Automatic annotation (TrEMBL):
Family membership noted in the UniProt record: Belongs to the elongation factor P family.
Annotated GO biological process: peptide biosynthetic process
Database matches in InterPro entries: Elong-fact-P_C, NA-bd_OB-fold, Rib_uL2_dom2, Transl_elong_fac_P/YeiP, Transl_elong_KOW-like, Transl_elong_P/YeiP_cen, Transl_elong_P/YeiP_CS, Transl_elongation_fac_P
GO molecular function term, any single one: translation elongation factor activity
Cited function: Involved in peptide bond synthesis. Stimulates efficient translation and peptide-bond synthesis on native or reconstituted 70S ribosomes in vitro. Probably functions indirectly by altering the affinity of the ribosome for aminoacyl-tRNA, thus increasing their reactivity as acceptors for peptidyl transferase.
Subcellular location: Cytoplasm
One GO term describing the cellular component: cytosol
Domain Translation elongation factor P/YeiP central, chain residue ranges per copy: 67-122
Stated name of the protein: Elongation factor P
Keywords from the UniProt entry: Cytoplasm, Elongation factor, Protein biosynthesis
C-alpha cells in the first residue's frame, strides 16, 4: 500500500475497481484545513480522464508495472501491432490505449507498461516528440515568418497539424506528442 506522498506522474493505481494512470497531480496545502492531493487520472481500460482529490495520507493501492521497449509495426483496423525489441514477441493493442495514435509512424519505438500480476499491457508511452514529413501543405509565401499565422498541414501518418506559413511539402517537422503541436522544422 502506498500513500498520497508516493503519487507521481505515470504511477498506476487501483481505484473504483479499475486501473488508472496518474497524468497530473498537485499537492495542495491550504492555509486553513488539511492538505490534499488533486489528481487527474486516466482509466487504462476505457481511456476516460477523471479528476479526483485524495486527502493527505490517504492509502492508495499501487499496481506493479514493468516497462518494455516495443517497436510499432502496423495498424489493422482499430488495433495497432507492436513487437518487443528484446524477445521479438508481438502484441496488438486497441488504439484507445494510445495517447496520440495518429502521430505513430511505423518503426517508432515506444515504452509499453505491462501489469506484472496479469501480464496484460496497460499503457503505451510515446516519445516526447516525433519527426514526421509533411505530405501536404498549402504553398508558403516568402516573408511571412514575422507573424504567428499558421496553416494546416498533413503529415505522413495522416495527422493534421497547425504549422507556420513557411513550412512546405517535403519538410520534416518535430511534433510534441502530448499536445500534438508543431515544435520546429528539422534540417537534414
Amino acid at each position: 500500500m502506498a500513500s498520497t506522498s508516493d503519487i507521481k506522474n505515470g504511477l498506476c493505481i487501483k481505484y473504483n475497481n479499475d486501473i488508472y494512470k496518474i497524468i497530473e497531480f498537485l499537492h495542495v496545502k491550504p492555509g486553513k484545513g488539511p492538505a490534499f492531493v488533486r489528481t487527474k487520472l486516466r482509466s487504462l481500460s476505457n481511456g476516460k480522464v477523471l479528476d479526483n482529490t485524495f486527502s493527505a495520507g490517504h492509502k492508495i493501492e499501487e499496481v506493479r508495472v514493468e516497462n518494455h521497449k516495443f517497436q510499432y509495426l502496423y495498424p489493422e483496423g482499430d488495433d495497432f501491432h507492436f513487437m518487443n525489441t528484446e524477445t521479438f514477441e508481438q502484441i496488438s493493442l486497441n488504439k484507445n490505449i494510445l495517447d496520440s495514435p495518429d502521430l505513430l509512424k511505423e518503426g517508432e519505438t515506444v515504452m509499453v507498461s505491462i501489469n506484472t500480476e496479469t501480464d496484460l499491457p496497460l499503457s503505451v508511452d510515446m516519445p516526447s516528440s516525433v519527426i514526421l514529413e509533411v505530405t501536404y501543405a498549402e504553398p508558403g509565401i516568402k516573408g511571412n515568418t514575422a507573424t504567428n499565422a499558421t496553416k494546416s498541414a498533413t503529415v505522413e501518418t495522416g495527422a493534421s497539424v497547425n504549422v507556420p506559413l513557411f513550412i512546405n511539402e517535403g519538410d520534416k517537422i518535430k511534433i510534441d506528442t502530448t499536445t500534438g503541436s508543431y515544435m520546429e522544422r528539422v534540417k537534414e
